[in-house]
């Protein structure tokens, strides 16, 4: 179980929040702040040889959607049973470079957390995370594809954690992972419990995520934003985990602090909050922390009725992208965001 003293955590969070709030490249698009816009979301793609072959065509479908202001990839650029090679990372980066829209990407567990597996190459996951950052985040503060400035946590060593605001909607992209937020043992390396270096990485990354969540909401409240959109790989409310988590809440212990932070901030924010994730591969739209949800007992959290979760299709279900529309400034409340699945052409 991942545990820290409350005082130590608060002290670290205060330091990180200050760092996250330090001056960074401007990320507000003010010239069209009153206009409606759309963006695309994909995740858990491409999975396996057949989907890798289709990936360039899928990117072209997204490029052809000229109304998109940006595209977000919420992680997992490979399946969980293939090698995490430098060559593969370079290939996916070359494909990402063909996006004509700004591309916001957050890593998934398949490209680093799970790379200890023998069929993944038996890598040290932390070395793979370093490589992911080298290949995909070599220019912190800028998106892949077309350039859009974002506020990055590069000063904390997490260039993948970024924030930006558009049309009074605050976006926050977070490195939150499957495999219980990377707390499962590296069995492919012969480990039966988390290693000290593994725990240190989880602690540092989680503290940075918490700091960014708090800073995102603080800025959103100060700017009177109409909504907050959080994006990450991990499905912290995966239906497939529900029975195990109900029997043993430690199954999802790596998410507890993050869920609590989201609940606290959602309940203090007088506007909708959206959590967009991949990981579980099947499109879903629900309120996982509404009153009566079994997840409230699992996480020991109060209800957060204003939190809307959206899971994007992925893996074998990655036959479409999610097209999200943000209404103009006259829309508030539940009418700010709407979405539809758009099938790929092939």
What's the layout of helices and strands?
Blueprint: H1 6-20, E1 28-29, E2 37-42, H2 48-64, E3 68-73, H3 86-96, E4 102-105, H4 125-136, E5 144-145, E6 151-153, E7 158-166, E8 169-173, H5 178-182, H6 196-222, E9 227-232, H7 242-247, H8 256-268, E10 273-277, E11 284-286, H9 294-299, E12 307-311, E13 320-326, E14 337-343
Parallel strand pairs: 1-7, 2-3, 3-4, 8-9, 9-10, 10-12
Antiparallel strand pairs: 2-13, 4-5, 6-7, 7-8, 11-12, 13-14
Task: Explain what you see.
The protein has helices spanning 6-20, 48-64, 86-96, 125-136, 178-182, 196-222, 242-247, 256-268, 294-299, and strands spanning 28-29, 37-42, 68-73, 102-105, 144-145, 151-153, 158-166, 169-173, 227-232, 273-277, 284-286, 307-311, 320-326, 337-343. It has 346 residues and is of the alpha/beta class. Strand 7 and strand 8 (169-173) form a beta hairpin. The longest helix is centred in the middle third of the chain and has 27 residues, at 196-222. Residues 1-31 have low confidence and may be disordered.
Considering DSSP H and I runs of 4 or more, what fraction of the residues is helical?
Answer: 25-40%
- Rg calc: 19 Å
Helical segment count: 9
Total number of beta strands: 14
Number of domains: 1
Q: Please identify the top-level CATH class.
A: Alpha Beta
User: What is the approximate shape?
Assistant: globular
The CATH topology comes to: Purple Acid Phosphatase, chain A, domain 2
Run of helices and strands:
HEEHEHEHEEEEHHEHHEEHEEE
| Low-pLDDT residue spans | 1-31
- Report on the biggest sheet: 8 strands, mixed
Proportion of strand residues:
15-25%
Structural class label: alpha/beta
What is the chains' assembly state?
single chain
Mean pLDDT rating: 91
CATH architecture: 4-Layer Sandwich
Terminal-residue CA separation: 45 Å
